[in-house]
Design brief:
By secondary structure, the protein is an alpha/beta fold. The protein binds ligand BES, magnesium ion (MG) and zinc ion.
């Protein structure tokens, strides 16, 4: 998406759609400059006639017959004293949807000065681009959808426009994550996920390493490999590295669950478990690879980042994991598999050991790990588990600033009793109640205790069935924007 800034204002503005964010209150003053597009007082009268007051979420549009643009869309932002950055994001997204049908340039005029102009500008650009995303890769005849391909921010002060360069890489990362999650499991296999990661590495000069099954065997990743045994498709352990130019002050590892399909294994998903949705069980890996793409282009200084995915499928065949098997992870811990459908944590166990061996300053994993987290928090809020308050605050702050929902959950150590195995060191599932907490406690067993670590359960947020603001229904790309924000502010977090 081409983005530009026009610090002059509306004079002689040309483009196909004009999107105005209007606060409640003095409309006349806010609409100054628009007179040239319409008959005198036409707009103000039309707003009054249609009872448009500027409440948050309100929208009205006009076809323009004179002037150089086709359509004028006005979205309400609510009361100025109550304005939140989220209102701006929602309004820009509603406006963007209303612009579908027009191609060319969308001009946007929002009250930039309500926050700082670069904050509002960034939010508006992201909201417009991400709201217009539509995945048509799998249609034989893609619908010809007209939507704007250029954004012009009108009347924004020219002082600090660096934010514009950041928005496109971030949106490309989110879109890549959405495409990876949206792709069906016969297309996005573990091998294809690895290929996509390699493509990103090549394009943005990241180091890359893909370990095959034998190499994972050499590393004794018995937990991860046990999950992949039931599939005809080989596991692919993906590791990309971003190294900054100049000095490294901080090293981080980001891990994503990468089950390109989760049938449940012999504990097959039946009934309400929605087996047909389980292509999105690689949402964590999509967030990680999407972030790698964004970071590769943004090139933040001073931070080295490892992107890790233990990719495979959870399927059934004659050599699949049996419920009851005892397996050994790469840190030597033995695991009794009392449920083959709790496979994500088995793959993450070896990925966490691998990441710990890199000895980073912090580790974050993202995983579509538990249905229990979906029940607890729904599809707009991810669960966050960590014993490190500093890391929790940094991730919460990053998520809040990009508008992704996150909620810190308790790491209740007494619940670990639920994972006691009669025979092995640990079993992979505990009681149904508190299922996402025991999942986090299971993961903890595979992280080097001295490294700050956070686990984010995105089972609910990686996909939405409703049209949700900047997320059209389907894959959301959840996590990319939070991770990029967190990574790019590492220097402040030291
Ligand atoms: N991939 C699922 C979790 C999931 C459920 C993701 C719903 C998205 C939506 C995970 O592998 C799983 O099957 N978890 C089980 C764990 C249980 C057996 C302890 C679950 O949540 O039911
Ligand atoms: Mg499962
Ligand atoms: Zn799963």
């Amino acid at each position: 998406m081409q983005v530009s800034v026009n610090s002059i204002g509306l004079q002689n503005w040309e483009g196909s759609v004009l999107l105005i964010g209007l606060l409640e209150g003095d409309h006349k003053n806010q609409l100054k400059g628009l007179e040239q597009l319409t008959e005198k007082d036409f707009l103000l009268n039309a707003l009054i006639k249609n009872n448009f007051t500027g409440k948050s979420g309100e929208i009205i549009s006009f076809q323009l017959l004179n002037g150089n643009s086709e359509k004028l869309v006005i979205v309400g932002l609510g009361k100025p004293e109550k304005l939140l950055i989220e209102d701006i994001r929602q309004a820009a997204s509603i406006g963007a949807r209303a612009s579908i049908g027009s191609s060319g340039k969308i001009g946007v005029m929002f009250p930039w000065e309500q926050f700082d102009a670069s904050t509002v500008g960034k939010v508006v650009i992201e909201a417009i681009r991400l709201s217009l995303f539509k995945d048509q890769r799998f249609r034989s005849n893609p619908e010809p959808i007209k939507s704007p391909s250029q954004i012009e921010l009108i009347g924004i002060p020219q002082s600090n426009n660096n934010f514009i360069q950041e928005t496109n890489p971030i949106c490309s990362g989110v879109e890549l994550a959405r495409e990876l999650v949206g792709a069906p499991p016969n297309d996005l296999t573990p091998k294809e996920l690895a290929n996509q990661a390699l493509k990103v590495a090549k394009e943005f000069n990241l180091e890359s390493k893909i370990l095959n099954k034998e190499e994972c065997q050499e590393k004794r990743m018995g937990s991860y490999l046990a999950v992949s045994k039931g599939s005809d498709l080989e596991p692919q352990f993906i590791h990309l590295t971003y190294k900054p130019k100049g000095t490294v002050q901080n090293r981080i590892a980001i891990i994503g669950k990468g089950l390109t399909f989760d049938s449940g294994g012999y504990n097959l998903k039946v009934g309400a478990a929605q087996i047909e949705k389980m292509k999105y069980d690689m949402g964590g890996s999509a967030a990680v690879i999407g972030t790698a793409r964004a970071i590769g282009e943004l090139q933040p200084p001073n931070v080295e980042i490892h992107f890790i995915v233990a990719a495979c499928e959870n399927m059934v065949n004659g050599s699949a994991l049996h419920p009851g098997d005892i397996i050994t992870a790469s840190n030597g811990k033995t695991i009794e598999v009392n449920n083959t459908d709790a496979e994500g944590r088995l793959t993450l166990a070896d990925a966490l050991v691998y990441a710990s061996e890199l000895n980073p300053d912090s580790i974050v994993d993202l995983a579509t790990l538990t249905g229990a987290c979906v029940i607890a928090l729904g599809d707009e809020i991810a669960g966050l588990w960590t014993e490190n308050d500093h890391l929790a605050n940094a991730l919460e702050k990053a998520a809040a600033s990009v508008g992704e929902g996150i909620w810190r959950m308790p790491m209740r150590s007494s619940y670990k009793k639920g994972l006691k195995s009669m025979l092995a060191d640990i079993q992979n599932t505990g009681p149904r109640a508190g299922g996402s907490i025991t999942a986090a406690l299971f993961l903890k067993e595979f992280v080097n205790e001295s490294i700050p670590w956070a686990h984010i359960d995105i089972a609910g947020t990686c996909w939405t069935d409703k049209d949700n603001g900047i997320n059209p229904s389907g894959a959301t790309g959840y996590g990319v924007r939070t991770l990029v924000e967190w990574v790019c502010h590492q220097n402040e977090n030291i």
